[in-house]
Design goal:
By secondary structure, the chain is mostly helical. It is 51% helix and 11% strand. α4 (80-89) links the parallel β2 and β3 (93-96). The longest helix has 23 residues, at 99-121.
């Protein structure tokens, strides 16, 4: 999970860990991309608006590295251009804050299951 807002990062981490997820957090896209374990993550949750690098830029970089894990973009900005840019960047799902927080765990679980099933079919 990547978000520059420590409060949001902490609350989402708490929410997901309560649902049984093992969560690693990063305060910037660059820090996450520098992590050597990115190819071992089951799912990426990225904030859209961050200093220096948006979630869409991070997603594009992950897809450029042939990372196939699902990517969920969370944003406080309702804009159809974000949806279009997210699709082009290879993002699987866009959720609005704070409404998306309630369904985040179930959406992640469903995305990981879909990705696992797709991998089994390859």
């Amino acid at each position: 999970m990547v978000d520059d807002d420590l409060d949001v990062l902490s609350s989402l981490r708490f929410l997901l860990e309560a649902e049984g997820f093992d969560v690693r957090t990063f305060r910037s896209g660059a820090a996450m991309l520098d992590s050597t374990a990115t190819e071992h993550f089951d799912c990426f949750v990225l904030d859209f608006k961050m200093p220096n690098m948006t979630g869409i830029t991070v997603a594009s970089s992950l897809r450029g590295r042939n990372v196939t894990a699902p990517i969920v973009l969370i944003t406080g900005y309702s804009d159809e251009n974000i949806e279009i840019k997210a699709t082009v960047a290879g993002i699987d799902l866009v959720l609005l804050k704070p409404d998306g927080e309630e369904s985040l765990a179930s959406q992640i679980r469903a995305a990981v299951e879909r990705n696992s099933e797709a991998g089994a079919l390859r």
